[in-house]
């Protein structure tokens, strides 16, 4: 008997469905799309952590030498700043940025300037921030789910020399997973 793909196991689990439903409704996002993003990014593992040496380019481009980051307690720790965390695989700078923009209260606490990065692993905080970021990308790309997913994954839509979106397969995979999850969960 052939092994079933991991998506069969992950997408049918009801873990965290209440969070996807709550934040999806709050932000006008299909909750099954949030679940599909989390499934593809972390396989719905709340403690998921990803750091690749290549991510240090992010640190060099967006963090190193920036005045607003110099005083930050994690400035000298690029492995913390350039890593992705939790269900929605949010990078710490993205988490801070989304926490400070609406809608909703800052999940790290009001007035919290330098929250502990470990809070990003909290499923409620992580899904909240991931949903905000996906909503931001949807608004940025005028509701185009494919481009919003590509930007969610890469920070912005990047194109190759032929004008094709370079991580379009990511969007296609998440959209396929979302189609499966549409038929399960409390939203079905």
Short description:
Helices cover 52% and strands 3% of the residues. It is mainly alpha-helical.
How would you portray this structure in words?
The chain has 10 helices and 3 strands; from the N terminus they run H-H-H-E-H-H-H-E-E-H-H-H-H. With 188 residues, the protein is mostly helical. It has a single domain, classed as Lysozyme (Orthogonal Bundle). Strands 1-2-3 form a 3-stranded antiparallel beta sheet. Strand 2 and strand 3 form a beta hairpin. Helix 2 packs across helix 3, helix 8 crosses helix 9 and helix 9 crosses helix 10. The chain starts with 5 loop residues before the first helix and ends in a 7-residue tail after the last helix. The model has no long low-confidence stretch (mean pLDDT 81).
How are the SSEs placed, and which strands pair?
Elements: H1 6-12, H2 17-27, H3 31-42, E1 49-50, H4 56-63, H5 67-70, H6 78-81, E2 84-85, E3 90-91, H7 92-100, H8 123-140, H9 145-154, H10 168-181
Helix pairs in contact: 2-3, 2-8, 3-10, 7-8, 8-9, 9-10
Instruction: Say what oligomer this is.
Output: single chain
According to CATH, what is the topology?
Lysozyme
Low-confidence stretches: none
Largest sheet report: 3 strands, antiparallel
Query: What share of residues is helical?
Result: 40-55%
Whole-number count of domains: 1
Strand order of the largest sheet: 1-2-3
Proportion of residues in β-strands: under 5%
Give the N-terminus to C-terminus distance in angstroms: 30 Å
CATH architectural grouping = Orthogonal Bundle
Give the number of DSSP strands: 3
What's the average pLDDT?
81
Give the CATH class. Answer: Mainly Alpha
Gyration radius over CA: 17 Å
Shape, per Cα inertia axes: globular
Please work out how many helical segments DSSP would assign.
10
């Amino acid at each position: 008997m052939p092994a079933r793909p991991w998506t069969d196991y992950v997408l049918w689990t009801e873990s965290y469905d209440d969070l996807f439903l709550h934040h999806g409704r709050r932000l006008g996002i299909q909750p099954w799309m949030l679940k599909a993003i989390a499934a593809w990014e972390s396989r719905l593992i709340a403690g998921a952590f990803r750091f690749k040496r290549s991510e240090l380019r992010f640190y060099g481009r967006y963090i190193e030498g920036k005045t607003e980051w110099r005083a930050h307690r994690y400035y000298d720790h690029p492995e913390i700043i350039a890593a992705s965390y939790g269900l929605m695989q949010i990078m710490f700078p993205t988490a801070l940025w989304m926490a400070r923009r609406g809608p909703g209260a800052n999940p790290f606490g009001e007035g919290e300037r330098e929250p502990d990065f470990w809070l990003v692993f909290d499923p409620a905080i992580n899904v909240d921030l991931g949903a905000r970021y996906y909503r931001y990308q949807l608004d940025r790309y005028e509701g185009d789910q494919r481009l919003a997913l590509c930007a969610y994954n890469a920070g912005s839509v990047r194109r190759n020399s032929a004008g094709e979106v370079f991580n379009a397969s990511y969007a296609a995979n998440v959209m396929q997973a979302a189609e499966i999850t549409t038929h399960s969960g409390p939203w079905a």
